[in-house]
Design a protein that fits this description.
Blueprint lengths: L3 H23 L3 H9 L5 H10 L1 H5 L7 H13 L2 H6 L6
């Protein structure tokens, strides 16, 4: 059903959810940079600002059990951004 990359991302979200959403709300931080790396994004700053700008869509009213839905939505955000498409190499859908 889900590939290895998605499972790794989901495990990361599930294990780091509170810190990840704090970093996402700020647009930077260690967990957000690690999440960017899981997407193969070389521009962590751009990734962070984009995730911050889409925070409500990605994280509002969600918890760690929504990891695969969060991944799908992050993939969609990346695909909607030509700049992120150019720097993120591991989009899962």
């Amino acid at each position: 059903m889900y590939g290895d990359a998605s499972v790794r991302k989901a495990s990361f979200i599930e294990g780091n959810f509170q810190t990840l959403i704090s970093d996402a709300a700020r647009g930077n931080g260690e967990q957000l940079n690690t999440f960017a790396a899981l997407y193969g994004c070389s521009e962590h700053s751009l990734f962070g600002k984009t995730i911050q700008g889409n925070f409500n869509q990605l994280f509002l009213n969600r918890n760690e059990n929504d990891a695969f839905k969060i991944i799908e939505d992050v993939d969609a955000v990346i695909k909607a951004s030509p700049a992120l498409q150019a720097t993120c190499q591991k989009i899962t859908i």
